[in-house]
Amino acid sequence: xxxxxxxxxxxxxxxxxxxxxxxxxxxxxxxxxxxxxxxxxxxxxxxxxxxxxxxxxxxxxxx
Length: 63
Known about the structure:
Strand order of the largest sheet: 1-2-3-4-5
Shape: globular
Mean pLDDT: 93
Strand content: over 45%
Helix content: under 10%
Order of helices and strands: EEEEE
Structural class: mainly beta
Number of helices: 0
Number of strands: 5
């Protein structure tokens, strides 16, 4: 996701519940409409990992 980019969800699929893992496919207002981008989100405790197939980012929940 980029600054001022708007992404629309095309599909969301729960892959596992332990840890919670989803495959979410999006389109972006800054790319061609037919370009769909898949992401894998993994949530465990206070951590969220996001993988786009090229890089991964880790986020920690603020307390």
